[in-house]
Amino acid sequence: ATPTSIMVGSGRGAEKGILFKGGEYLEGTQAIEAVLLDKTGTITEGKPRVTNVMTVSGSEDDFALVAAAEKRSEHPLAEAVMAYATEQDVDVQDPATFEAVSGHGIEASVEGHDVLVGTRKLLMEKGINTEFAEEKLQEFEKEGKTSVLAAIDRELRFVIAIADTVKPTSKAAIEELQEIGIEVYMMTGDNTRTAKAVAREVGISEENVFAEVLPEHKADQVKKLQDAGKKVAMVGDGINDAPALAIADIGMAIGTGTDVAIEAADVTLVGGDLTNISQAVRLSKKTMRNIR
Ligand code: ADP
Ligand code: MG
Hints:
- It is found in: Cell membrane; Endomembrane system.
- Keywords: ATP-binding, Cell membrane, Copper, Copper transport, Ion transport, Magnesium, Membrane, Metal-binding, Nucleotide-binding, Phosphoprotein, Repeat, Translocase, Transmembrane, Transmembrane helix, Transport.
- Belongs to the cation transport ATPase (P-type) (TC 3.A.3) family. Type IB subfamily.
- There is one protein chain.
- The protein has about 290 residues and is α/β, with parallel strands linked by helices.
- The protein has helices at about 5-15, 25-30, 40-45, 65-70, 75-85, 120-125, 130-140, 170-180, 190-200, 220-225, 240-245, 260-265, 275-290; strands spanning about 20, 35-40, 50-55, 95-100, 105-110, 115-120, 145-150, 155-165, 185, 210, 230-235, 250-255, 265-270.
- The chain has two domains: about 5-45 and about 165-290, Rossmann fold; about 50-165, Calcium-transporting ATPase, cytoplasmic domain N, CATH 3.40.1110.10.
- The protein has 13 helices and 13 strands.
């Protein structure tokens, strides 16, 4: 491409809130055949909030121990639990010990109690029976809510439902990509049922959903699509997404996301509006036409 057409294209992009880190990415974007979207914070607002807390057994006052266990976690779900505790005027202590279990949840020691918060898998691996919660859990998951379980001293105590709203433009943005012949996929660490419910809401087909993907395996999913012969754009906002953004043919970071994601990506979508993806493709095509 001529330096002039690149300059003009980059300028147009910047006006729309699409920042290309270099001319090669503006050129490369037109070749994209598949777009892999992170769920939380990319398709959704990434501002989860607690909608229901169900006490499975014991006193509901013990929710204070759960909030304390989450106090040192930086996960958005932990922030949602903390916000809820504040709303409910719960007195939240500091945990004595705290450990994050990547992709699954947390374990902490609070006032002499062992507290586990996270996926059913995390609790089951610790030998906790989660059967009593299964029906409720599935009900929340079918509504597209992330459901987290909490156990105290190895006993299942709470089911916490957490909702995150889909961004108003996500559905239209995904449809636009599909209309111009680009395949759209979703990837998340969240539960399969929750992921599929959100996918349905935005028009991504079930077979294009990769759920329960551990942080260290996100890049592998990009590689898998590339190995199938596709040019892949990965779009994400989190620290977890950085390796996938780096390995993708075009990595696109959500501007409102983490610095780590922005650094790993080739393009920044400043406002986080997914309609900027198809606009970037159009801009890239136009730029390439101008040079030929
Ligand atoms: P993602 O960021 O894609 O949603 P993660 O790998 O961060 O996925 O987390 C996967 C799942 O692990 C979450 O959906 C949740 O069920 C559980 N989890 C992770 N961290 C926490 C936490 N601090 N509190 C409760 N649950 C958690
Ligand atoms: Mg995310």
